[in-house]
Amino acid sequence: MDVVVAVRQVPGERKGGFHYVTADNFIFHRYKRSAQSEYFRCRKYESFGCLARLRQTDHQYFKTGSEHNHENETEEIRKIAVVNECVKYRSDYSSFLRITYNV
Ligand SMILES: [Zn+2]
Question: Which InterPro entries match (predicted)?
C-alpha cells in the first residue's frame, strides 16, 4: 500500500524549476514523467546515493523507494525560502521602478 505524502512546490534556482519539499523537510526533484505520473527522487541521490522516491498521480504524491539515508534538510529549505523572498522582492522593486520612473 502506497503512503500518501504532503508535498509543496518551491521555486528552484533555475527558471521554471521546482524543489518538491515534503512535510518532513526533504527535497525532491523531478526526474521522469509518464502519461499518468511524475516521478521524483531525493536530491541527495547523487551525493549520498539516497534511494527515496516519490510518485505523483492524480495530484497526489506517494512515497516509494527507500527511507532517506541522511538527515532532513530543514536548514537548506529555510535558505531556499530566503533566496526566493529576495528574488520576489527584487522583481517587485524593479516593477516599482518601472512603473514609478519609467526605467
Ligand atoms: Zn534522501
Answer: Znf_FLYWCH
